[in-house]
Amino acid sequence: MCFPSTTADVAFAVTTANRFAIPFVARGSGTGLAGGATPLDGALVIVTTRMNQILEIDADARRAWVEPGVLNLDLTRAVSHLGLHYAPDPSSQQACTIGGNVGTNAGGPHCLAAGVTSAHVLAVEVVLPDGTVEILGGLAPDAPGLDLRGTFVGSEGTMGIATRVCVRLMPDPPEIRTMLADFTAIEDAAAAVSAIIAAGIVPAALEMMDAQATAAVEDFVHAGLPRDADAVLLVEVGGLHGGVTHDASAIDAICRDHGARTVRIAADATERALLWKARKSAFGAVARIAPDYYLHDAVVPRTKLVQVIRQVYEISARYELIAMNVFHAGDGNLHPLLVFDGRTPGIWERVHAAGDEILRACIDAGGVLSGEHGIGLEKRDAMPLFFSADDLDVQARLRDAFDPDGLANPDKILPRGSRCGELGAIPDGAWV
Amino acid sequence: MKLHLDDAELVACVGCGLCLPHCPTYRVTGEEIASPRGRIAAMRAIVDERAPLNASFVAAMDACIQCRACEAACPSGVQFGHLMEDTRAALAPQRSRRRRAVEWVGYRALLPNRRVLGFATRATAIGQRLRLVPKRFGLPPLPLRAPETLTADAAPDAYLFTGCVMDAWQRDTHRAALRVMRATNARVGLPDAGADCCGALHVHAGRYDDAVRLAGRVISAFPGDAPIVVDSAGCGAALLDYGRLLDTEAARQFSARVVDFSTWLVSRQLTLTPSDTVVVVQDPCHLRHVQHAHEPVAAGLRAGYDVRTTADDGLCCGAGGAYSAFQPELSEAVRARKVAAIRAAAGGVATFVVASANPGCAMHLAAAGLDVRHPAELLEARLGND
To answer: Do B356 and B343 meet the contact criterion of CB atoms below 8 Å apart?
Structure first.
């Protein structure tokens, strides 16, 4: 393990790893949900937490150069006096690093309107897997040439390590309205989501929590969430006064049409912060139900939300597991959590079996494996459920172009056997 | 040797990491083992016998300031303070002979005996004047003479808890608190003999037997049912935990009477003369993260001062009771961060005062060159005439 402070330190660590032919893995705050930063085979862990300086803020150009260990929320706080913020806001935003966000191409509630990390990274200084330092992308909105920056964002440390990141800063909306709608049936809430999007409204955020999640977080935040609701929707709209008022009243009407009992509007910034704290604490509050959870990150078409959610509950009930749903409803990014106590004999087999079935249901509904958490170690072997052998081979060759020696976070993202002609385990039921 | 920890409390950590930014030692080191999540993982490894209980485990546990900011940040409500106290209790017999001797003097001889502490204070004060006491101990200049006795009212509406070190070193703060309380037309009582020390430091060090004995003495020193007002955040947090520590009905009833000084004032009438002096409020961890009673401090001072608050979510100052003496390097690194946050909150004004409701924090921050006062002293200075 090493704790570099500069780009040169990282380059030295990578060069040294090359010299001894040992694999290396970058790690930020360790909040990842797919095991991307888990070291395998005695890998050198390059921890970026001490590279935590905001190097330069250009308020006029609305961009900043930051080191990878800067915490996501610290960045927003550092620019808030300028009326700016960094848009991608994962639930772990108070703890996770910008470097980790780049690695996983992280999302967050406000990515519905603002787009995910890739849309907010203009350029990245990278220590490539051979130890050389390059800048990918550029300060222009659309850098010329191949978009290597776009390739790097989301590569989970398999194409090198980010050592400086130039991020886009967004202006704070002049007005924000945050609403909490509560429903007695989760299907109604899901239908309301589809209806809001179908009405042509793009809220800043559109989140759903089911009854289990709502009760668990309410125990922590005491935000007055309805404990008897089957699901709540957290909807936020931002912009100019007229637009906000129009969208808010339209959303209010749509929710009520779909059976919402109440639509609560946050009265001030404090109440809004409390509602968001509730939403963003959901995963962490799981231990109030049981000490372990297994989480998926599939994205399904919004029109299939009702059907897939029903299947998630049906599958987990069949395996006698508790399912909890907290997710970015607006973009159909499900986060079904199977909550359990790992000390129960035989429970892991049930959890894995149920998890696989849920994933298959999502993919059958036209969904994808992961919306924002990355593939890492944990979803690696599910890749063939979604990608053909040719797809995997192309990805493997792109990766090899960056890392011919295979030392940069090996055995992550792509399962063994991805390269054409390479032998490896093929999971049961894979499309081969 | 084995580590006995509450399994339910231990597995309640799901590893989400939301505690990390709130942990002062993680913030200054960036190391997982210096974070609550890393410490819990280490405890688990010891309990499950996957790792040896060696010097590096002990060092990792000792590096924790026990500020308990992680508890306030934890969505799953992990009782980190209890886990750390239980771990320290298990480690206590393993300490070096020298460390045990120092601890015996501190925890058994000095803190719980008012007269011994008074004598030691005088002796140290003389030593300081003769430059025999090394600066690295971080002690403030101690009073040479025994401070004037405080006077109690009969049939009190409320008691003021006085405690050990604070009473010996900072009795003027108690005097200010009494004046402010009386300015609200309250009759204020003082504890009967025996309430010499609340036992907070003993609990933090895992010395439960000592703490239980002290708690029993404290409880019997406050007859009746009048509220017990505490002007030291650390003591207040300890007194509020007596119900759990002793697990008796009497202890629970006692804890229910305990209230922080500024919180008690919320329901009282107090007139202050306004001033434009800038006051930056420092939230002691055991007021903010444990008692969740930090907001009344700033609110109470607003009538008399230009009050500013720090933007660091109440990150610890690094004092941590005896921590600053045992871990000077980390303690100073944490303090440097806090001082920067305080200066940022002051917003560039040349002179400002820091309000701290905990004597340990006050001494630690004063040693960094800040002008630190207790909220009671600040209120007393602005008491109105009408």
So the answer is: no
A220 touches chain B (CB under 8 A): yes
In a domain, B248, yes or no: no
DSSP letter for each residue of B62-89:
HT-----HHHHH-TT---HHHHHHHHHH
Cβ of residue B336 closer than 8 Å to a chain A Cβ: no
- Residue ranges making up the domain that contains A75: 7-171
**Degrees (nearest 5) of the Cα angle B327, B355, B67?**
35
The tens digit of pLDDT for each residue in A363-372 reads: 999 999 998 9
End position of a domain, from candidates A141, A156, A171: A171
Over chain A (432 residues), the average pLDDT of each successive run of 10 is 97 97 97 94 96 97 97 96 97 96 96 95 97 94 86 97 98 97 94 93 95 92 94 96 96 97 95 94 89 91 89 94 91 91 92 93 92 92 92 95 96 88 55 46
CB contact (8 A) between residue A220 and residue B37 = no
| Domain count of the fold of chain B | 2
Cβ of A291 within 8 Å of Cβ of B14? The answer is: yes
- pTM of this prediction? 0.92
> Do B69 and B27 touch, CB atoms closer than 8 A?
no
Residue that terminates a domain, selected from B91, B117, B149: B91
Output DSSP code: residue A203. Answer: -
Domain boundary among the residues A171, A192, A212 is at: A171
Answer yes or no: is B291 within a domain.
yes
pLDDT digits (tens, 9 = 90+) for B5-44: 888 888 899 999 999 999 999 999 999 999 999 999 999 9
Of B91, B111, B143, the domain-final residue: B91
Domain count, chain A: 4
* B274 vs A: CB within 8 A: no
